[in-house]
Amino acid sequence: MRLSARDLAALTKLVGEGNLASDREARVAHAAGRSYIDLLALRSGHLHSAPDVVAFPEDEASVASVLAFANDRGVAVVPFGGGTSAVGGVGPDPEDKRPVVTLDLRRMRRVLAIDPVSRTAGVEAGIRGPLLEEHLRGQGFTLGHVPQSFEFSTLGGWAATRSTGAFSNRYGRIEDVVVGLRLVHPGGILDTSAAPATAAGPSLKEIVLGSEGVLGVITQLTVRIHPVPSRKHASFYFRTFDEGIHAMRAMAQSGTPPAMAYLSDEAETEAAAAGGPAPAGTRAGALQRVARGRGGGSLLVLAYEGTVHDMRVQARNAKEACRSAVSLGAYPSETFEKERLATPYLRDSLLDHGVMVDTVETATSWSLLLPLYRSARDVLLRAIWADGVAGLVLCHVSHMYRDGASLYFTFLARQKAGDELEQWKRAKAAVTEAILANGGTLTHHHGVGADHREWVAREWGESGVAVLRSLKERLDPNNIMNPGKLLPPGG
Amino acid sequence: MRLSARDLAALTKLVGEGNLASDREARVAHAAGRSYIDLLALRSGHLHSAPDVVAFPEDEASVASVLAFANDRGVAVVPFGGGTSAVGGVGPDPEDKRPVVTLDLRRMRRVLAIDPVSRTAGVEAGIRGPLLEEHLRGQGFTLGHVPQSFEFSTLGGWAATRSTGAFSNRYGRIEDVVVGLRLVHPGGILDTSAAPATAAGPSLKEIVLGSEGVLGVITQLTVRIHPVPSRKHASFYFRTFDEGIHAMRAMAQSGTPPAMAYLSDEAETEAAAAGGPAPAGTRAGALQRVARGRGGGSLLVLAYEGTVHDMRVQARNAKEACRSAVSLGAYPSETFEKERLATPYLRDSLLDHGVMVDTVETATSWSLLLPLYRSARDVLLRAIWADGVAGLVLCHVSHMYRDGASLYFTFLARQKAGDELEQWKRAKAAVTEAILANGGTLTHHHGVGADHREWVAREWGESGVAVLRSLKERLDPNNIMNPGKLLPPGG
Fold this sequence. Notes:
The structure is a homodimer of 491-residue chains.
Chain A: H1 5-15, E1 20-21, H2 24-29, H3 36-44, E2 53-55, H4 60-73, E3 76-80, E4 100-104, E5 111-115, E6 120-124, H5 129-138, E7 141-142, H6 155-161, H7 168-171, H8 174-177, E8 178-185, E9 188-191, H9 205-208, E10 217-224, E11 226-227, E12 230-238, H10 241-253, E13 260-264, H11 266-273, H12 283-291, E14 298-306, H13 308-321, E15 326-327, H14 331-340, H15 346-352, E16 355-365, H16 366-386, E17 391-397, E18 404-414, H17 420-437, H18 453-475
Parallel strand pairs in A: 2-4, 3-4
Antiparallel strand pairs in A: 1-2, 5-6, 6-10, 7-11, 8-9, 8-10, 12-14, 12-15, 13-14, 13-17, 16-18, 17-18
């Protein structure tokens, strides 16, 4: 504990009795996110760092007062949403020796206003996915934003990390969901325009989105909402991943693709079908039937969403694009959707069995997608094999745009006992270099956090780094906000 | 001329023989844009300022070398696209006493690459609308971006000012059109990611878009392109503007509205129908027939665009939304589209006849749209009448979003001889205050320029101003880039 009793008393006064915790459990629970490095550390029992105290502010004024206090006293502040960062975004910086207050936003979870005419809602940043949906659905609306961390992650966290949801083909990324927002920074409050569109200069909203807590704390957002939709599922089986990607592109460029589309490469399709004989009516069962005697193959699961008419247009475009594929009906997609939010829990079981498992993701244009895919997969496999262990690389495409799409790799390998962290670092570095060398972005939706910092200058360039440093210096001159994240090391 | 012969020789060397002009004609042609203030000044023959020299660089390296020279010598630089700014964006700052080089980008107009698979194109910033469309259509594509200044304005200018085109309901605003871009600033080059989407921090692209030349010169862009579409026209006549707005909202919230939709209020509808008996098959004729015996009324012209199927979906949504209206068929919309690009020329004839004419525009949420409309119109009329002259205020809605729409006002009044500028300033100030007080953005697509500077802090807030000043100071520490634009005066 690097904070004095007097500091703690002052903080208690700022956030209110009962809204401050400095017990071991609270500190450990806020020491790490869900990156591979975080999971290794949590399992080893040797955390590199933990906050000295966790505050649970109940309103924006408390956030502002904590930031003013911290700025004055030389205390670092880590904003904390659901704690699901896959890139080391929420742990205190082990290099920074100042005391740390983690601001857990979970008690700022009110829906402030719903405007059914404009179809917008004003919401506090700390609300989690399920509670937000419960509120909105009570009024006949949905946000339509369902990242895989949905159960735990928060609206503010989605905005801070440029999150993307499974139905992004219909509702867009978080930058399309958010109309405007409020950011409390150590020197004041940045409140961006909530007009549907504006030509009044550079976009302040787009400066806050993706700022990962290093500029301040997002406290409140205005978001676009949609009438609760109907949903239908469909699945198709392609001879090859290449053929499936061709169909994905046709759907994306039709202008009205399925709300969700998730195409697995041959390895991931095989993994989904693996196991003993599966009952009919399950994804594995359907896959086993069709894959029997075929080998290889690439599974595409789809969801059509919206009005009956919207679904008809999406289905028409999908069927047109998937002419060459075998239709597998609704089951594989329905099962997929039920399993999707649970998939991350698998990582714990795998780690229990001594398996290294992590994911990397990127996006690029359609014309670079297959070369990037092949190169990144080969580099990953080679990096794993170079360590003399067996490994597996799975890939899917799950977000598409008119001009390109995302690629999401899962890599698994037997852990090298005693060398777990370095083993992971070698694979991570190799695949990241391959992604950047082949025209991919450093990250499509995981963010930068601590894990991608060393590469971010490659994405932004020298002038881009200078721009982001100047924003940081202006809004957070004493570098108290989430130190050690987003910005490249040094300088 | 505030530049020495030696400076001119140095500049000639940087941009190449024949790419520099300091004759009176070139200087006058680059002294002003097309704002009301600009038009008054051009007609009076008393220009407040003009560049000392106009450079026509042929490539990015020349732009960079001119900026380095200017930065070194204390010379201001004004980037110049089509010169169509409606808000004083391209004239040298009369308050700034340094020499001025205007960089006219018209000789940087190459289409560098077309990627038909990803449906993107790499293009130099100085290309004008018609030439860009000619190139793209030669390959079966279109940009789909047609602002009213289309004939003269440039891709780089559209990006620098956050332009919007008539078909924005289908192709989006310029921020949706542009994937990535390059900005030359006095200290280097900012090259933003060209991935279809990224979570690698705040958006550098969205910092350059809308920067109006104050951070640097946009030299090159990657844009999304679309297969050349088919187009169909339709028109509807509503009893009232309110009823038309209700239909616009229904179309916008259907998710697939007509590519173009333009709804005139009662006054603008009446103006469109005005004049002597009009021939059948013209917009005026159709309007006169339907308006006869009705009075009032609000005209909506639509264009459906895309594939046959796209147009069918747009038409279905439009007809559903316009159930209460009288269909006027294709003619009024076809005529409207033919006349649209010529409308700005009318301003010259009106000025010839001693009529003050200008436009102001904004956007807001659907629930604030009608109150804002009424307030702004009343304030404008009152401001005009307070001067004891007859006046007219017309309005239309021409860009729509799920959560709101734009409003575009045209105001006309007899000029007060000898008091023309102050008369305009009073009306402009009154309506701008009304727009801001009623939840509208300062500008939906005209930009800030010089004319909106005094209000921009109201849009951005104190922290927003600080953020934009820090960007300016980092990228252009000597304030050579387009001084007197975008940023609020002082400080």
